[in-house]
Amino acid sequence: MAPKIRSAGPITPQKPKSSHTVYTTRHRIRFFDAWDTRAPGLSLRQFCQDRDPDFGTASRWLRQRNTFGSPAYRRTRRLSNKLGRPPIVSKEQCQMLVSPLRNPVRDQAYKAQIEFHKLGCKKRSLQARLKACTKGGQRYKQAYIKKEISRQNKRKRQYIFFSDEAHLDTSSQAQGYILREQGTRTDAENIQERGERTGVKLHVFAWVNWWGKSKLYFYHDEEEYIERPPRPPKPRTRKYETTDEFEARLREWEASLPQEQVVKPKGNAMTQKYYTETLLPVHAKALHQARLVRPNGELKRWLFQEDGDPSHGKKKRGMAQVYLDSNWIPTLVHPPQSPDLNPTEEVRNILKQRVRRRTWRNIEEYKAVCQDEWDKITLEEVRARIIEMLDRCKSLVKTGGAAIKSDLW
């Protein structure tokens, strides 16, 4: 053997065989034929010791043949769920486009946004990607609001005291919660007795305007009007009737008279005298204090709005109207039984909704809860209701006096 010399060059090592073998349909058919004709008693592990494939692959092929049958003889390739070319706009870019903090040109057209962010795609491609990667992302109509009430509407309504009375049921609470396991709601230890409805127990009143609101006042008229059942008319003598017959009918009438019954008052009634002596002085004092504030040295004409409750004396000139005239308080013409045109009604509804979420044990705690929730009502919430007055008046005229409903109230 001739000695090796340097000019022969180094020997390049051969590339080792890859451990990953791609099996074709022909490999599968040969394996199944050999397995079906194997020697009796030969296990799968012994069968795979001196031939391909390995034990794991052979086990998988046999399971596939038991499940799918003859299609397992053919080689199957994994199919991608995403067909076609990869998208140009990624999911992260779509999330960025709909983010108010990351996309300063959301109000521009699609082409302008594509050029600004250098996406490099067409308009239709961007629309399809937004629909697939976001929750219905697309260009919708812009919503607009007015940050401030219009000058004409503000000039009319910023110097109006809106007043109203409300009647509260102290037994109206939110449904309670209890910690328990699922399916044990009807167990005796998880059931509590609900208190009886006591009806209207508290009466409150307050005023609101564009610049502020009063505290919540509680009142109760001890001289509430009590309705009693009517008496049947007393019989009269007839032309062709004897004295005995008339006396018999008279005794029958006396027997049919209703007995004296203790009738409880309704709870939400108030006399005009009580309204004039108790509630009106509070409103008059607030109006006089508002007149002392003169912006730019101008004296503003404040108006007072109240509903058509009988105690307000709207049908004829009574004690309430005399009191208002003597204190130089002009009133705003307001239709009776029209809560849709009084912002105080909706502010009161806010109070009732929030009070129902709280709990209390007695009347004093209930009053404290009402006052606390009333103080939490912001001036922005009050102004939002006053701003709607112009549109609500138009809607009321359009519907012919029917009840109206908006997003706020």
Can you characterise this structure?
By secondary structure, the chain is an alpha+beta fold. The protein has four domains: 22-73; 91-133; 151-174 and 197-226 and 267-398, 2-Layer Sandwich (Nucleotidyltransferase, domain 5), CATH 3.30.420; 232-262. Helices cover 37% and strands 7% of the residues. It has 14 helices and five strands. It has helices at 25-36, 44-47, 55-68, 91-97, 110-117, 123-133, 151-157, 243-255, 272-292, 319-326, 343-355, 363-376, 379-387, 389-398, and strands spanning 160-169, 200-209, 212-213, 217-219, 303-305. Strands 1, 2, 3, 4 and 5 form a five-stranded mixed β-sheet that branches. A hairpin with a 2-residue loop joins strand 2 and strand 3 (212-213). Helix 11 crosses helix 12 and helix 11 (343-355) crosses helix 13. The longest helix is centred in the last third of the chain and has 21 residues, at 272-292. The chain is elongated, with a radius of gyration of 44 Å. It starts with 24 loop residues before the first helix and ends in an 11-residue tail after the last helix. The mean pLDDT is 81.
Topology:
Layout: H1 25-36, H2 44-47, H3 55-68, H4 91-97, H5 110-117, H6 123-133, H7 151-157, E1 160-169, E2 200-209, E3 212-213, E4 217-219, H8 243-255, H9 272-292, E5 303-305, H10 319-326, H11 343-355, H12 363-376, H13 379-387, H14 389-398
For the structure shown, list the relevant keywords.
five-stranded mixed β-sheet, Nucleotidyltransferase, domain 5, 5 strands, elongated, 409 residues, RNaseH_sf, alpha+beta, single chain, 37% helix, 4 domains, Tc1-like transposase DDE domain-containing protein, nucleic acid binding
